[in-house]
Amino acid sequence: MTLFAPETQVRPVEPTRAVRYVLPLGIGIAATGIVGWVGPVGPLWGILVGLVTFGVFFWADITKHWIDAVILVVAGILGLSFFDWVLAARTGPVDFKLSLIAAIGWLIYGAATGFVVYRHRPGYRAGIIGFQALAWGGGATLALFTATTMGVLAPLNVRQIDAGEIQALTIGLFVVTGLAASGIGLGANVSFATRLPSLFAGGLVLVLTVMAYNEIQFSTAAIATQLTRVGEIVDDFWPPVWKWPKSVGQPETFNIVQPFIETFQIAIVGATIGNIFALPLAFYASRMTAPSNLAYRIAKGLLNVTRTIPDLVWGILFATAVGFGNPFAGALAMIMFSLTIMAKLLSETVDAIDIGPLEAGRASGATHTQVIQYAAFPQVRPNYVAYALYIFELNIRASVVIGFVGAGGIGRLLNERRNFFQWDQVMAIVIVIFVSVLLIEWLSIWARRKLV
Amino acid sequence: MTVPDLTPDEKMEQFRPQEPLGPRIIRWVVGIAIVVPFIWAVIGLEISPERIWRAPSEIWVLLSGMFPPDFDDSGRIVAKLLESIYIAWIGTMMGAVFSFPLSFMAATNVAPRWMTIPTRAFLSAIRAFPELILAVILIVPFGLGPFTGALAIGLHSIGTLGKLSSEVIEGVDDGPIEAIRSAGGTLPLQMRYGIIPQAMPTIVAYWLYRFEINIRASAVLGLVGAGGIGADIVARLHFRADWPKAGAALLATIGVVLVIDAVSSSIRRRIITGQPSTSMLSKGMIAITGAGRPPSTELGA
């Protein structure tokens, strides 16, 4: 018996690293995109894409069998011919519906790649084929739909088609579609085969970033140019103007003060009412204290939906309902904003309370309201106070901008001055907002430290 | 001496101890500190009972105007929603990429004091500008469009993500860092092997969380002309009074935000716990594909 085991036994098995598959995947995605140059010739493109995919599968040790190459190439010819045919036969611009129909071609091809992975990786169910098909098809749809609005693919513009300036689709469309579909699809294939979710995530992130970068016309050049003329921009904004006449012929006054007070008032009303109304809702939205399962589901569902609506959209809705430029609309919006946040935070806290006092209350015959009042609420009171302060802070930040949609406060003034291109006055308002937000943040931190 | 005839309840009252004065005063002070500003605010905003009374019917008019929604130009809604998602995505990417090094510079257990203090001040300064206000300022040099929106969201995200990530870095266990230092590891090595493995899951979860917030933010940036669905909602509600179409845009936005929230929070849970998520979504995916089951053969076999 040896004192030291051989090193090979001591060393643990090295886990499969995602890095190993980055090179084959990257080359595969690039190749699928590049062979898009032959895109308008559907069958040929299909053969090339099938061969590229088989190459990646071969490299990543998924399959080495010739029959899989045949499956991929045949599916490629079928799918991409369909894709090409749909786009060539189109009468209008490439809109969402047409993108979906054209993507069926990629769906067929994706199903074939899924079948190959399914054939070679035991443990998966046949449903994986559908998932792969969706991944390839989804990538293609995204690419097509983005391409219609993308700058690099301008010839797809309906105006130019109508004017007869172009007839054919650009090659760029096929390149981008190939890149996007294979970025997401091939990533999903290898990710499933190797059980490394990061490969799929990586592909998705890459494709989304490239698409988004093009779609929003992100330009580092613009940033660089604007940085060189920062002096001119500062000239527009500086020095800030604090006093200006309300209307022509009037004396100059501090017009910031009144809207600023209004902002505070909106925040106070919103936070107070919102926090009070959130209290019963939070107890309904927790399994611990909900009177019935139905009430719990309704309250929870309501909260989940209302939480998706941003504060400013509440502002737009209420401004439309109760009158444009009305601070009452801002207060209503802030109530909804506070209500949803407080109810969510508090209901999650209530979920974690000690059930003992609740059971004791129920056992001694207390009504549901009494149980909540004497057994549940005292347990969460410190959290409630801390959340209330936090929500007040959020309210001040939010009510600063709520005026942009005509809901009162300093945002309304800012929007108004902006529409008159009075940048030096805008600067004064921005400075006031900046200082007050910082002050409130410090105050809130200080108060919470005192309380807790 | 006669004992007054008391009911049991009144006897109990007699023996109940007096509440001490301190808490009573505090309760009154807190009560006044809440009620007085509230009344001042209500008066200042000119909220009359009549107005409150009228509000529900006005909201009902709007709601009944918006529903049923009109999905006629769904193509445009999808395009604008995609633009919103792209703005949020680029903003989050900017925030993640730039906040990552800044968060190390702001963490007291990595960087020296002369570096952490200015970095922190910088982060909290850019955080103090709401996205909308940043967009208003950035429109001057960069013009109207989604690019400006992405820059505004990105800048704000750098501030928030930098703060959260630096707190995560400060919270890591010192043990591994010390071990690497004692074995002669330099600062970059300490960061790469001592801090990043511990902090990365939480930081990535924060990136995803920020993406969820940015989606909501980018949905309203259109108000100032910085791209996305917001401009359509406002235009249809305020200027064209095309309420059914506004309802469609709003419903689509809510749907997209709900789906992205569900996916993102499921991924976040997976990242933080390392366990397959228990959400319906991932359970469904595992049931269909069998992806969560242990492999029956070794890889590459």
The DSSP helix count of chain B reads 12
What CATH calls the topology of the largest domain in chain A is: MetI-like fold
Helix content of chain A: over 70%
Outline type of chain A: extended
Please state the structural category of chain B. mainly alpha
Structural class of chain A: mainly alpha
Taken from the alpha-carbon principal axes, the silhouette of chain B is extended
Number of helices of chain A: 19
CATH class of chain B: Mainly Alpha
> What Rg of chain B do the Cα atoms give?
28 Å
Identify the most extensive interface between protein chains. Answer: A-B, 85 and 78 residues
Estimated helix fraction of chain B = over 70%
CATH class of the largest domain in chain A: Mainly Alpha
Can you tell me about this structure?
The complex is a heterodimer of chains A (452) and B (301). Chain A has helices at 7-10, 22-34, 42-59, 66-88, 96-120, 127-147, 158-162, 171-194, 197-215, 220-228, 230-237, 257-284, 293-307, 311-322, 327-351, 356-363, 368-402, 410-419, 423-451, and strands spanning 244-245, 252-253. With 452 residues, chain A is mainly alpha-helical. Chain A has two domains: 18-218, no CATH class; 244-451, Orthogonal Bundle (MetI-like fold), CATH 1.10.3720. Chain A has a two-stranded antiparallel ribbon with strand order 1-2. The longest helix of chain A has 35 residues, at 368-402. The termini of chain A are far apart. With 301 residues, chain B is mainly alpha-helical. Chain B is built from twelve helices and no strands. Chain B is extended. At the A-B interface, helix 6, helix 9, helix 10, helix 11 and helix 12 of A face helix 2, helix 3, helix 4, helix 6 and helix 7 of B.
SSE diagram, text form:
The complex is a heterodimer of chains A (452) and B (301).
Chain A: H1 7-10, H2 22-34, H3 42-59, H4 66-88, H5 96-120, H6 127-147, H7 158-162, H8 171-194, H9 197-215, H10 220-228, H11 230-237, E1 244-245, E2 252-253, H12 257-284, H13 293-307, H14 311-322, H15 327-351, H16 356-363, H17 368-402, H18 410-419, H19 423-451
Antiparallel strand pairs in A: 1-2
Chain B: H1 8-15, H2 21-44, H3 49-66, H4 74-106, H5 113-127, H6 131-142, H7 146-170, H8 174-182, H9 187-220, H10 230-239, H11 243-273, H12 280-289
Helix pairs in contact in B: 3-11, 4-5, 4-7, 4-9, 4-11, 5-7, 6-7, 7-9, 8-9, 9-11, 10-11
